[in-house]
Amino acid sequence: MRVSKNLLEISRLSKRFGGLPALSEVSFRAARGQVTALIGPNGAGKTTLLNCLSGVIKPDAGEILFDGANIAGMSAPRVARLGISRTFQNLRLFPRLSVLDNVLCGLTVQAGDSFLEALLRLPGLRNR
After folding, report:
1. Top-level CATH class of 6-81?
2. In Å, what is the CA distance from 101 to each residue of 83, 114, 125?
3. What CA–CA distance (Å, rounded) separates 79 from 71?
4. Cα gap 15→23, rounded to integer Å
5. Fewer C-beta within 10 Å: the chain N or C terminus?
6. How far apart are CA 58 and CA 51, in angstroms?
7. 79 CB burial (10 A radius; 0-12, 13-18, 19+)
């Protein structure tokens, strides 16, 4: 199997909420090994795109290729197992807990020890 130079390819992705288009045939590529930014004004569809990418919502049309596999419409847990997930802006953290303990509050049993072990390998995180 030939490895694509693009880790992520989104083609003609569309999503509507009621009669309002949130995404209309959006296409872009993110090259393997490169940092890619998604910027735009409020209401441009950035969050909707990330929600489609991470499986939080299903697109109405289009294709999302991650490492060559079409993940459009996959559930969030299935997409997470491929290595894609997102976090939500939440200012209701527990102020008396460490960074690690706040993260662990959201850890599901399915994530298993490998997630925790990866976190503990991050520089400086073990003692926070």
Report:
1. alpha beta
2. 22, 16, 11
3. 7
4. 5
5. N
6. 8
7. buried
Is the separation of the CB atoms in 81 and 54 below 8 Å?
no
Threshold 0.85, pTM exceeds: no
Convert the pLDDT of each residue in 10-60 to its tens digit: 999 999 999 899 999 999 999 998 999 999 999 999 999 999 999 999 999
**Residues near 85 by Cβ (< 8 Å), separated by ≥ 6?**
54, 76, 79
Backbone φ and ψ for 76, nearest 5 degrees, come out as -60, -45
Residue pLDDT, tens place only, 83-92? 888 877 766 7
Task: Please tell me the distance from the alpha carbon of residue 116 to that of residue 100, in angstroms, as a whole number.
Answer: 9
